[in-house]
Amino acid sequence: MLEIKNLQARIDEKQILKGINLSVKSGEVHAIMGPNGSGKSTLASVLAGREGYDITDGEVLLQGNDILEMSPEERAREGVFLAFQYPVEIPGVNSTYFLRSAVNQIRKHRGDEELDAMKFLKLVKTKMKELGLAEEFLKRPVNAGFSGGEKKRNEILQMTMLDPSLAVLDETDSGLDIDALRIVADGVNRLKNQNNAQIVITHYQRLLDYIVPDFVHVLYDGCIIKSGDKTLAHDLEEKGYDWLIKDS
Amino acid sequence: MSSTTVINLAEEPANAFAEIKRRGTALLPLRQDGLARFQESGFPTTNDEDWRFTSLKPFTEMPFETMFEPTIQTIGQSVINGIAFSQHDTDRLVFVDGHLSSELSQISNQSEGVIVSNLASALTTIEDKIGALSGKDQNPLIALNDAFFTDGAWIHIPANQALSKPVHLVFLYTAIKDGQASHIRNLIIAEANAKGTILESHISLGQAAASTNVVTETQLGDGSNLEHIKLQDQSSLAIHLASLHSKLGSDARYAFHSFALGAQLSRNNLRMDLAKPGIECMLNGLYMTRGRQLADHHMIVNHAAPYCNSHEYFNGILDDQSRGVFHGRILVEPEAQKTDAKQTNKNLILSDEATVNTKPQLEIYADDVKCTHGATIGELDNDAIFYLRARGLDSQTARRMLMHGFTGEIVERIQHNTIRDELNELVWGRLENEYHLN
Q: What is the ipTM of this complex?
């Protein structure tokens, strides 16, 4: 599904990613943990194609295709989805209009029939119910005036609607109370199947009680310094990162 | 230039006024007082703080021809059918160069006691009300209007009555030659618990540099609710000068929406008097300028009573060498506790040469209030563009969606559904066809 080879990136002359290697297969969930400033969000941004990063070396292959040459929209159409740590408020742009445009853009790219307003509404309302989002949500501008929890649930709603092959969740748990966390995790778990993969970036082990990873990686100073199974997350919860950092 | 009515107004206003007297026009004391005030002040200049960013030179340096007489030009019904809002079920008062056109106007049976008429035909019954709200203002353009106004709308909604359909005030300007000057006066009174929607359109028929100086006084009784939507869509040489003076009663709700799309120079002076408790007042506007246009909104919201809300939202899109000016002053007097006042001015610049002068201003003398203000000037938000692209939308679509959103923020505050939809399309069509969006 995804092959990251020796990925190096910098921003404003500062080297952030210093050679990341990661292999993610279909059906897998990978968690990336690490202290602040280790490069987790940069990795998410680079995967999604945010401007401002200088890729100095390495490659990222999604189903064999190098995505680093692609624009953000091409990546999204190829199946990359980034759930933003800080979803952007877009006043004046209606949520329904935005989401339907995005869904149809991606369906078109896949050769699927575009959804008319009725079909779209029917589908989105079912998905919203699962995520505990009120229907009036659709009438509001994208993320504008949403609470932190609503914004994160909106990310998951978009993810559900766009059905990506690779979902990257950047600190989706931050700012969520336990109920909202459970709803978000349920949404992510429902999406999981043998044809897609998920990368969950998080600070805290608690999200991983709900989204159980197959692999856990520790990112520190721009490199993955340790990989393991889900028990690694528990070790980190207990011992923090210092023991790994001293070893590295 | 041989016509007796073409004069240099700045130098010889009395000559123009002689024509008023010769005609035996009504309200002579008001007019004479206006003339005297104007002679005293002259036109405002950029030395005047309120006019610092907006020079009236394009207006004052023109030959000046007051449109004392209705035009002889025939204007067909097709002209009306082509303008915004004409396909809605409204009553319509049409004025051409400041004179009522009975042929083009169309008034249905409004509720009992509701008056929808022109001002000139009702002067004897309302003369004491004209100038009641605007009279204390030092603005020389009001003085000029007092002296020279020809006609305008007179709308009266008695207590507990509602306009059965929106009233559309259509101001057409023949704009056949430079300097044609129309002075328009509107008076709108909604008594206690009255309701209504008023549309106001200003449209040029010709391309000449004609000017409009319109003064509107709006008086809202206790518990009344008025939505007032103004569309200024004049030609690119037109000059549009407007003053709106509103006085609101307890628990009154007034929403004024200003869409300033046309004219080489447009200025909206908005003066809101909130002297009773429980008022909700919203000033909501969008200006879009290109070429060498200048759009100026200058407002003073005076909170003189407790528990009032006032919100000002103005967005501007500026292209080419055009200019936008926003001056929003909220004054909270000592007795106006629990005031909730908010003002924002956001500007989107599409060209390196466009400029904006924005001056949000709070002046607060009460201690238990919630007041916020803010202004932005810039390009589209890169984070927002990336967000949309990360959802599969190409960069052009993302930019357009954001720009549409920028106008939509303002348009969506219109309560009247179908009018809102029409303005949304009108504004967006204009941007797509005439602005540099990419």
A: 0.95
